[in-house]
Amino acid sequence: MVAVLAGILGIALTVALGNWQTRRAQFKLGLQAQWDAAQRAAPLVVNAATLREIAARMPVRVRLTGRFDHRYSVWLDNRQNHGRPGFYVITPFVTDGGDVLVARGWVARDPQERLRLPAVGEPAGVLTIEGLALPELPRLLELGAPDESRRWPRVWQNLDFAAYERASGLAVARFVVQQTSQSDDDLARDWPPPDLGIDMHRGYALQWYSLAALIAGLTLYFGWRGLRTAQ
């Protein structure tokens, strides 16, 4: 009898865990749908009046008009593009609504000197660009805080808004625009889709449900044997 009760508890626990993983997968499917819809939507113009709306709706497709301030570019290290190591180039874009950090694109690393920054174009003058406004770029494992003592441009592992403001003296919007429109700068902009781990959650759910089925089978088998022995 104790074994049967333990089996029932085991079934309840594993089914609950499987259901939780299924709900996580469904939630992230919703996030993926939001991402896909944002990429198809008409762009929202970035200005002082729309900054709060953009922050509340991310991800959202946006259009910015202004100038790049290339003096304060940051290069994010260890970024991959089709398996090749390189950098993301982040540059502030000065608009009527304030400064917005733009992830302009990816460039391959120098194979001979790891931290030598490759030459890239620096578009000048008043420009109109489009992209996807995101709360942040995917983060990599980082030991310690960004080095704010180096001269510009700086090589960081991750983009940190507060650290960037301290280092540059600029006030920037609390989102980053992943540029999708083309510019004459030799940067690649085939951004990878977000890795939401949907298949991982589905796999975990299947494992928990399979374990629940195994426990159910064993409980029925040994419960039936126990009843026959008791007769």
Can you describe this structure?
The protein is of the alpha/beta class. The chain folds into two domains: 2-27 and 198-230; 43-179, no CATH class. It is built from four helices and eight strands. The chain has helices at residues 2-40, 51-57, 161-168, 198-230; strands spanning 44-45, 60-68, 74-81, 84-95, 98-108, 127-134, 154-156, 172-179. The chain has a five-stranded mixed β-barrel. The chain is elongated, with a radius of gyration of 25 Å. The mean pLDDT is 82.
Low-confidence stretches: none
Write down the overall mean pLDDT.
Answer: 82
What general form does the structure show? Answer: elongated
Measured by DSSP, the beta-strand proportion falls in 25-35%
Distance between the termini: 14 Å
Tell me the number of helical segments per DSSP (H or I, 4 or more residues long).
4
Q: Percentage of helical residues?
A: 25-40%
Please provide the ordered H/E string of secondary-structure elements: HEHEEEEEEHEH
Largest sheet: 5 strands, mixed, barrel
Question: What structural category arises from helix and sheet content?
Answer: alpha/beta
